[in-house]
Amino acid sequence: MAAANPLNFFWFIPTHGDGSYLGSETQQRPPEFAYFKEIAQAVDRLGFGGVLLPTGQACEDSWITAAGLATITERLKFLVALRPGVVSPTFAARQTAALDRLSNGRLLLNVVVGGNPAELAGDGVFLPHDQRYEQAAEFLEIWSRLLTGETVDFAGKHYRVEKARLDFPPVQAPRPPLYFGGSSDAGQDLAAEATELYLTWGEPPAGVGEKIAAVRAKAKARGRRLRFGIRLHFIVRETEEEAWRAADRLISRISDEQIDAAQARFTKEMDSVGQRRMAALHGGRRDRLVVSPNLWAGVGLVRGGAGTALVGTPEQVAERLAEYQALGIDTVIGSGYPHLEEAYRVAELLFPALGIDRPGARRLRASVENEFSVGNAAPRLAAAAS
């Protein structure tokens, strides 16, 4: 049964590439803007509320990609990465205001503080884990004050600015919203202090509930209230058997060596608490991938970040999402391989079970006689057949 307040359902632009098999170059799709455009226009038409654009060394730049996609979409919102420590807060504020104006107020910001020290070093960031969050707090204070119209003087541990200002304001007031995902205490403190929506990766409901309760309490202590979202992959099919076959197929070409290398990277090279929690769900073992009813951790065998998928029929997946919604989740950021085809499956199969409207859907009139017609055409076709 659909919830009284349907979820906000976003999709994903695979700016690092796409394909039908994880760990394989077979049926691989390169990260090309023409393909991003296909996905963005499809999900805009299908009724998704927005898209997440990832960030990192292996991704096309999320800001430039979003700017291009904003000009060829109508309703879609764009969740792009805001990287404290990588750019200056004043420059980021100017970028934010410009993209918010270009998109006519369809910009959202995903605060990304770190995760892989080796990659951060390539960007000139050498601070240890908790100090990165201290730096991010200063960054967001300057950034927020500029976007709300202040002339800013600030002298902190990591930043100093004098008489900084924005001459061109954003469309959204007081500023575009901040989304944030972080499982460490330092990350949760930053979320409670400075952001509007806290994101978690797709852990079993008990773990998600614990994280939401902790962040909610931290926000309440600061006189604030946050919204909550979850990042998940989706494998939705008309039957449960089809769904699990699709899940098995997705990882059918991953070798044990690839799994071992990926898990070593996640647990030894990265200092992300959230990534360690993802890896611990399955421990790199193929026989431990179902970590909760319909929650499958196969994607996380080789993919960093979000590593779990909801697998099943539309009714089963809707039931699982209702469990997360009961914990306080109001936003889902989904994805699936390949992202173009799976966007259609999610919209056509799952959205009706969730009570999500599809404003771009077009229905054939009942009077049209063709292979999809029903209603008025059916009696005529039956008569002709007799």
List the helices and strands and how they pair.
Layout: E1 8-12, E2 18-19, E3 28-29, H1 33-46, E4 50-52, H2 62-70, E5 77-82, H3 89-102, E6 107-111, H4 117-122, H5 129-147, E7 152-155, E8 160-164, E9 178-180, H6 185-194, E10 197-201, H7 205-221, E11 227-236, H8 240-250, H9 256-269, H10 273-282, E12 290-292, E13 295-296, E14 309-312, H11 314-327, E15 329-335, H12 339-354, H13 377-385
Parallel strand pairs: 1-4, 1-15, 4-5, 5-6, 6-9, 9-10, 10-11, 11-14, 11-15
Antiparallel strand pairs: 2-3, 7-8, 12-13, 13-14
Helix pairs in contact: 1-12, 3-5, 5-6, 6-7, 11-12
Descriptive overview:
The protein is an alpha/beta fold. It has one domain (8-355): TIM Barrel (Alpha-Beta Barrel). The protein is built from 13 helices and 15 strands. It has helices at 33-46, 62-70, 89-102, 117-122, 129-147, 185-194, 205-221, 240-250, 256-269, 273-282, 314-327, 339-354, 377-385, and strands spanning 8-12, 18-19, 28-29, 50-52, 77-82, 107-111, 152-155, 160-164, 178-180, 197-201, 227-236, 290-292, 295-296, 309-312, 329-335. Strands 1-4-5-6-9-10-11-15 form an 8-stranded parallel beta barrel, surrounded by 8 helices. A two-stranded antiparallel sheet has the order 2-3. Helix 2 links the parallel strand 4 and strand 5 (77-82). Helix 1 runs parallel beside helix 12 (339-354), helix 3 packs across helix 5 and helix 11 packs across helix 12.
